[in-house]
Amino acid sequence: MREVPGNDRFLDDVLSILKEQIKESLPSIRDAVLKSGKEFVLKSRKDLDRWNAMLVAGAISAEEYGWLVEARLTVAELNALKAAGLALVRIEELRLSLVRAITGAALSAVGL
Predict the structure, then answer these.
(1) Which residues, other chains included, contact 4 with Cβ-Cβ below 8 Å and sequence gap of 6+?
(2) pLDDT, tens digit, for every residue of 49-59?
(3) Does residue 73 or residue 76 have the better pLDDT?
(4) Does the reported pTM lie above 0.70?
(5) Concatenated DSSP letters of the chain
């Protein structure tokens, strides 16, 4: 039976995936990106826990999980990136990277 990922392990997995995705593209704002990612996961913990449980139970698909994360993540929650002077196009790229990191960590944790 699949298990719901633990909070600390899940956050570590998300940040690890995110670090890998951005290491070459934007090293100068790496810290701002990781801070935004961590803040999003912590702020959205209740939703992510519920969606992770639904994913484990088979109540939602991987695609639906990704959509839920993407819908929850708004440009407003990436203020650190705007403060770093990042163009909106790059913010969108990084927002999608964060969605992929969270979804990837969830799918990996539940064995999908």
Answers:
(1) 49, 52, 53, 56, 109, 110
(2) 899 899 989 99
(3) 73
(4) no
(5) ---PPPHHHHHHHHHHHHHHHHTTT-GGGHHHHHHHHHHHHHHTHHHHHHHHHHHHHTSS-HHHHHHHHHHH--GGGGHHHHHTT--HHHHHHHHHHHHHHHHHHHHHHHT-
